[in-house]
């Protein structure tokens, strides 16, 4: 998860105040203004129609959209346009539990809906993985599934495509936030920020209080020793595994004069020469060669279709001794035990991981490397791993974009009969007279 093409996210389309809206009671939702120092703003929301126990077949005048998850929060103007164009049905939370959801699909409780709309990553997934069991029950009228989030390993996009359903993610909306977070993680691997932060603060936060003299010793040891292990990113080669929206934004930031890194990338499909020239990026046609030339490798590619990791003991063995590694893609793409071994043996000098194989749990060996003070048995310095909680895409602006982009995708396909903005599974679609995109990481 192939990444969407680099299409600029369309802005919200304002609607006149006279636009017809639901006659349901007006709800309100308060959010902080995105303008610095501004006060909290209360915006109106137009609630979706909730499902009814009445299963009498009906013929709606507007296409039906099944809205799974919470009501919209950030884009009321676009939602007014959306709810005018479609009859929006939002199943209750109990109806979204897998057993009841399956029962509802079998009963055709929500009629012949045309689209599935999931505007938030935190809600709407109560039914679990969208596999053959669920997808086979969808009515033939469904044309598109538009969801928040960049990842889509929770939905079988191949089966959806073979059923004629376009799946659209919202990775485009998260690209800037993820790229910004990646910059912090890359810098961490060059400057060993976990070590510096732990030495300054962990002695005071430990469950077994550290004496003042031990705390001062940890501070002084880091102050004296971190220098010998730290480097400026400038002039080093940054290797990007995957060169879609996120990879290209990372390249633009780290390859700029501000950081001055050399950019290399590997992708299953080479990008146009114009893109490479603009970003001063060098293409490598094998993962092995990318790993060999890189001083820091960033994994920013979709989850593999077969579920197998890309970063293994074999691929880590291609790295220069002491190279750095960052993962902001998917935990399933990394053999975490192999990475811990590589860190133990100095094959990898430092690492930063925002995503983990068994979220919300993290690998115990990596966690110890992230927090341990004092030098290890092999003399490698502590705090060589930064671990975060799948935070890379998590900003208010990202969620605004998730919501907006999901609606824009459905409006484009169902109302306007145009191509989707951010489709990811066109390769698998059958019986559609559309140009299939290049399949890439």
Determine the structural class based on helices, strands and strand pairing.
Answer: alpha/beta
Strand order of the largest sheet: 11-10-9-12-13-14-15
Give the integer mean of the pLDDT values: 83
Indicate the CATH architecture of the largest domain.
3-Layer(aba) Sandwich
Number of strands: 15
What spatial form do the alpha-carbon principal axes imply? globular
- Number of separate helices: 14
Beta-strand fraction estimate: 5-15%
**CATH homologous superfamily of the largest domain?**
NAD(P)-binding Rossmann-like Domain
End-to-end CA span: 7 Å
Please give the CATH class of the largest domain.
Alpha Beta
Radius of gyration: 24 Å
The share of residues in helices is 25-40%
Low-confidence sequence ranges = 1-54, 433-441
Note the topology.
Elements: E1 27-31, E2 41-45, E3 49-50, E4 64-67, H1 76-85, E5 87-90, H2 98-107, E6 115-118, H3 132-135, E7 144-147, H4 157-162, E8 166-168, H5 171-191, H6 193-205, H7 212-229, E9 237-241, H8 245-254, E10 262-266, H9 273-279, E11 281-283, H10 287-293, E12 296-299, H11 313-316, E13 323-327, H12 336-344, E14 348-353, H13 364-371, E15 385-387, H14 396-415
Parallel strand pairs: 3-5, 4-5, 4-6, 6-7, 7-8, 9-10, 9-12, 10-11, 12-13, 13-14, 14-15
Antiparallel strand pairs: 1-2
Domain D-isomer specific 2-hydroxyacid dehydrogenase catalytic: 130-416
Pfam families: 2-Hacid_dh, 2-Hacid_dh_C
Protein name: D-mandelate dehydrogenase
Structure, described:
- InterPro entries: D-isomer_2-hydroxyacid_DH (IPR050223), D-isomer_2_OHA_DH_cat_dom (IPR006139), D-isomer_DH_CS (IPR029753), D-isomer_DH_NAD-bd (IPR006140), NAD(P)-bd_dom_sf (IPR036291).
- Helix content is 33%, strand content 14%.
- By secondary structure, it is α/β, with parallel strands linked by helices.
- The protein has two domains: 177 residues, Rossmann fold; 213 residues, NAD(P)-binding Rossmann-like Domain (Rossmann fold, 3-Layer(aba) Sandwich), CATH 3.40.50.
- It has a seven-stranded parallel sheet, sandwiched between helices. The protein has a six-stranded parallel sheet with strand order 3-5-4-6-7-8.
- Helix 4 links the parallel strand 7 and strand 8.
- The N terminus and C terminus are likely disordered.
């Amino acid at each position: 998860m192939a990444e969407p093409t680099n299409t600029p996210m369309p802005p919200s389309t304002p609607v006149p105040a006279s636009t017809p809206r639901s006659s349901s009671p007006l709800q309100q939702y308060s959010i902080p203004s995105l303008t610095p120092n501004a006060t909290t703003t209360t915006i109106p929301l137009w609630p979706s129609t909730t499902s009814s126990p009445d299963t009498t077949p009906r013929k709606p005048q507007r296409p039906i959209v099944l809205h799974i998850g919470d009501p919209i929060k950030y884009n009321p103007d676009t939602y007014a346009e959306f709810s005018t164009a479609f009859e929006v049905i939002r199943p209750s939370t109990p109806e979204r539990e897998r057993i009841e959801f399956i029962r509802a699909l079998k009963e055709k409780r929500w009629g012949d809906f045309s689209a599935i709309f999931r505007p938030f990553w935190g809600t709407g997934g109560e039914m679990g993985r969208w596999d053959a069991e669920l997808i086979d029950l969808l009515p033939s009228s469904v044309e598109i599934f538009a969801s928040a989030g960049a990842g889509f390993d929770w939905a079988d996009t191949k089966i959806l495509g073979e059923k004629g359903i376009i799946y659209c993610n919202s990775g485009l909306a998260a690209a800037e936030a993820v790229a910004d977070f990646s910059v912090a993680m890359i810098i961490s691997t060059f400057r060993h920020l976990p070590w510096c932060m732990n030495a300054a603060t962990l002695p005071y936060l430990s469950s077994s209080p550290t004496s003042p003299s031990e705390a001062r010793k940890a501070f002084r040891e880091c102050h004296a020793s971190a220098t010998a292990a730290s480097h400026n990113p400038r002039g080093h080669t940054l290797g990007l595994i995957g060169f879609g929206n996120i990879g290209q934004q990372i390249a633009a930031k780290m390859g700029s004069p501000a950081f001055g890194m050399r950019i290399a990338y590997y992708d299953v499909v080479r990008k146009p020469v114009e893109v490479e020239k603009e970003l001063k990026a060098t293409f490598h046609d094998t993962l092995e060669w990318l790993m060999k030339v890189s001083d820091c490798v960033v994994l920013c590619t979709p989850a593999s279709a077969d579920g197998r990791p890309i970063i293994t003991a074999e691929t880590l063995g291609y790295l220069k001794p002491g190279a750095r590694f960052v993962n902001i893609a998917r935990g399933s793409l990394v053999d975490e035990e192999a990475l811990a071994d590589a860190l133990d043996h100095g094959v990898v000098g430092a690492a930063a991981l925002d995503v983990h194989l068994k979220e919300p749990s993290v690998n115990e060996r990596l966690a110890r490397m992230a927090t341990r003070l004092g030098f290890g048995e092999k003399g490698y310095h502590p705090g060589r791993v930064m671990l975060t909680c799948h935070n890379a895409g998590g900003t208010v602006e990202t969620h605004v974009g998730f919501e907006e982009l999901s609606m824009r995708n459905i409006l484009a396909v169902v109302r306007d009969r145009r191509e989707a903005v951010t489709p990811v599974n066109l390769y698998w679609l059958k019986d559609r007279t559309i140009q299939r995109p290049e399949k890439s990481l």
